[in-house]
Structure formats: C-alpha cells, structure tokens
Design goal:
It is a single chain. The protein is mainly beta. Helix content is 5%, strand content 30%. The strands form seven sheets. A five-stranded antiparallel beta sheet has the order 4-5-3-7-8. Strands 1-2-6 form a three-stranded antiparallel beta sheet, with no helix packed on it.
Length: 367
C-alpha cells in the first residue's frame, strides 16, 4: 500500500477508514506536564468536515504499550480526567489505560494538556476515533509504532520523541561541522543506519530534529517541493460538483455538466441565458425561442385561469375557454373620463346639476 493510496472499508465501519488516518503524538511541556495532540482525519467519502463519519475521539494514557484489550468498547460513553497520576485520576480506566480525554459530537478539538506525570517514566498515548452511534476505531492510533500480530490491521506509524538523558535542548552537541556521523537504530527487529551532518546539529534540539527527520524518511516516502497530488480533481457525482486538490483542501471550481463538447452543442439542444432571461435553441447557431412563463404547466389550466390571445381574453370554466369582457383602450378605464367644456350632467336621483371643470378635471355641483 502506498502512502497516498485509498483505504477501503465495509459500509458500517467507515470510522475505521477515517480513524487510521489520524496522527497522534505526546510532547512533554515540563517534567510533570505534557500535551497530547492529534489530527482531524480525512473524510472517508467526500472532502468537507461535515462529511466526516468521525464524531469525536477517546484518548488514553498508559505506562505500557496498549493492546486490543485496552480498546474502548462500542456503545460505551467514557468519562475523562486529564491527569496521569493513577491515584488521583477521576475518569474511566480501560484495564490499565487512563482515559484522559473523551469528546463526542466534537470534530474540531485537536489537543489536551496532561498533568501529574512522573519523572523518568515512559508514557504511551493512544487515540480511538468514534462515530455518532458510539462505534470506535478498535485498533486506534498511537504515539509509537505498535505491531498487533494477529490483530485486525498491521502496525501503524506514530510520532516518536527522541531524548538525550542529562542534556537540555540548547546544550551544544560538540559535533564537528562538515563531518558525517552515523547512528544505528533498531525498530521492530530491523536495524537502520542514519547519517547526520554535524553542521546541521550544533545543539541537542537540532540533533533530535535531524534524527526525527531521518526516521521519517525511512522507507523512502515521496519527496517533492510541492504537496502530493496537488492539482488533481475530484468530481462529486451526487451533487455534480467539481473540486481541485491544492495539497491541503478540495476547492470548488466551476464545471459545465454536459455529456458532449459544450463548444459544439448538438442540434436541438437548448441554452437558457440566465443574465438576460432568454431561451435559445441550437439549429445552425443559437436561435431565439419563445418562452412561456407560467407558474405551472400551461396545458393543465385550473378554474379562473385566463388566456389572452393578443386581441381577446378567455376564461377557463373547467372544461372550455369562454370569451371574457375586454376593455381595449390606451387610457386606464378606472380613470374618470375627460369631458370637453362646457359639459353638464344632471343627477336625476339627487336632483343636482353638475358642470365639468377643465382645471380640476372633475364634475362639480352647479345648481
């Protein structure tokens, strides 16, 4: 399996596929404190954080390497306490492992600070991803390499802190510049030879960094100036969206969803110009096409729908179109008519004579 190969999983155990992409490490911040940090996993299906099956993580701490027996049990909610002192720890324990962090419905937290560490004691941190129905990534990920033997998956790489007893990071190493020093390391029964340039390791901090760098390069992982697979594309068929990977994020980019070359549209195809609200049909070029704008299917009218032919109005009765009274004139028929002066009107009901006023354009009572 390559470094950037996908990992398949059964549908009900997608949490395992995501959980094993997490990287976890533990770093001392003082003789009695440490920070355990981890990465948010890569979504098993999709690219956005809201597409993660991952819904949180349980982190354990132990003074001995873990085993399957120390893994969280599906369906169980754990209580955490961020202390490494087993006598003061108030959270849950899984055999000998202390639950120092437990988060559910939390896809953003990436570290926890631990207190109560004892000097000159090795601590082993493990993380177990959990989904929203309390199913755990049983094998977990660890801050150290761990062969499981006959367990469900192979060894999983982890971060390792290299420390030199009796020295602090800023102390000079005494290594001579431009001189290459050879270190032999044994991991899982395999011996590795690492070469360190004295020029790059004037202090113990620099030496540890160089050792960690060379350890990470064991196995000859891909090396380049840019991110792996940067520029590759991902098409999400469910939403018909196209994304481009920049090495860290899938970025949404515009895409024309068409089964033929959009520069050579098929005869009879349509294009709707959303800017100008115009419809065109392809026939030796884009030809304007009449558009019927109606809130429903115009071939299925309902009662009180009206149809205007251009010269007459018809009303749908439920079975047929019947002619409807139409006032066709340039002046709004609701506006009072304009009379020529002199004009009189006698109201027979009120027995009042009215006269037209050219200035106000209304009839007013005359007598």
């Amino acid at each position: 399996m390559g470094v950037f190969d996908g990992i398949k999983d059964s549908p009900q155990r997608d949490i395992r596929a995501e959980g094993q992409t997490i990287a976890i490490k533990i770093e001392k911040t003082s003789p009695s404190t440490a920070r355990i940090s981890w990465s948010i996993p890569i979504p098993f299906a999709g690219c956005r954080i809201d597409e993660l099956v991952y819904n949180g993580i349980v982190v354990t701490l132990d003074t001995s390497p873990t085993s399957i027996q120390k893994s969280p049990v599906n369906g169980t909610v754990y209580t955490a306490d961020p202390t490494a002192d087993s006598n003061l720890h108030a959270g849950d324990k899984i055999t000998t492992s202390l639950v120092v962090f437990a988060a559910y419905d939390d896809k953003t937290t990436t570290f926890v600070d631990i207190s109560g560490l004892s000097p000159n004691v090795a601590y082993y941190a493990s993380g177990y991803a959990v989904d929203n129905v309390l199913r755990y990534h049983t094998e977990g990920v660890h801050s150290y390499s761990l062969p499981y033997g006959n367990a469900k998956e192979d060894s999983i790489g982890g971060y390792q802190d290299v420390q030199i007893n009796g020295a602090i990071g800023t102390d000079p190493t005494g290594l001579i510049a431009a001189t290459t020093y050879t270190f032999k390391l044994n991991a899982d029964g395999t011996e590795y030879t690492i070469a360190i340039d004295g020029t790059l390791s004037p202090t113990y901090d620099d030496l540890v960094n160089q050792l960690n760098k060379q350890i990470n390069l064991i196995g000859n992982p891909p090396q380049s100036n840019g991110y792996p697979n940067a520029g590759s594309f991902y098409y999400k068929t469910s939403s018909k969206e196209l994304f481009q990977w920049d090495g860290q994020t899938h970025n949404l980019i515009p895409v024309i969803n068409w089964d033929t070359d959009p520069r050579v549209p098929a005869t009879g195809s349509y294009w709707y110009d959303t800017t100008n609200s115009l419809l065109f049909k392809q026939n030796s070029g884009w030809q304007p096409t009449t558009v019927i704008e109606f809130s429903k299917d115009p071939t299925l009218p309902s009662c009180d729908d009206f149809w205007f032919t251009g010269t007459s109005v018809n009303r749908w009765t439920g079975t047929v179109w019947t002619p409807y009274n139409l006032l066709s004139q340039t002046v709004d028929p609701s506006i009072p008519p304009v009379m020529s002066c002199p004009f009189y009107w006698y109201n027979e009901d009120a027995l009042v004579l009215n006269s037209w006023n050219d200035d106000t354009l209304v009839l007013f009572q005359k007598l």
